[in-house]
Design a protein that fits this description.
Elements (H helix, E strand, L loop, with lengths): L1 H26 L12 H27 L5 H22 L2 E4 L2 E5 L2 E5 L2 E4 L9
Antiparallel strand pairs: 1-4, 2-3
Helix pairs in contact: 1-2, 1-3, 2-3
């Protein structure tokens, strides 16, 4: 019975965290869709999304490491879902983000998890 309670708890926490990241992605739509260079507010939103996604991914890894059952596939799907939202927004505003893989041991397996990093931020040029 305790295993089932832990499983339900982990599942609920993972769903809550992923829904938080998805809601950030949905609210991050910019009216500046046609511009080549992201605004300062868009870049701030992107950096906040990256920080939130990285924290969520790190928490998901810790939860997966503590569970007694093999949930590596679920972890990888969760990480992909979180990262895809950030990648979509970055592409939308014209910035570039990348993942740098980090090794974690989850359920006796070495898994490559990808924290997100913002790179290649276009610079606004001032017209004379």
């Amino acid at each position: 019975m305790k295993r089932m309670k832990k499983f339900v708890f982990v599942l609920v926490v993972a769903l809550v965290l992923s829904s938080m990241v998805f809601s950030m992605t949905a609210s991050a739509y910019s009216p500046n869709a046609d511009a080549d260079v992201p605004t300062e507010k868009e870049m701030q939103t992107l950096c906040e999304m990256v920080d939130a996604a990285n924290a969520t991914i790190e928490l998901a890894v810790k939860i997966a490491q503590k569970t007694p059952y093999n949930d590596v596939k679920l972890l990888l799907k969760t990480v992909d879902a979180i990262a895809n939202g950030v990648f979509s927004y970055a592409e939308h505003i014209g910035a570039e983000v990348v993942c740098e893989y980090t090794e974690y041991v989850v359920d006796g397996q070495t898994v490559l998890i990808d924290p997100i990093r913002v790179i290649n931020i276009p610079v606004q040029t001032q017209k004379p």
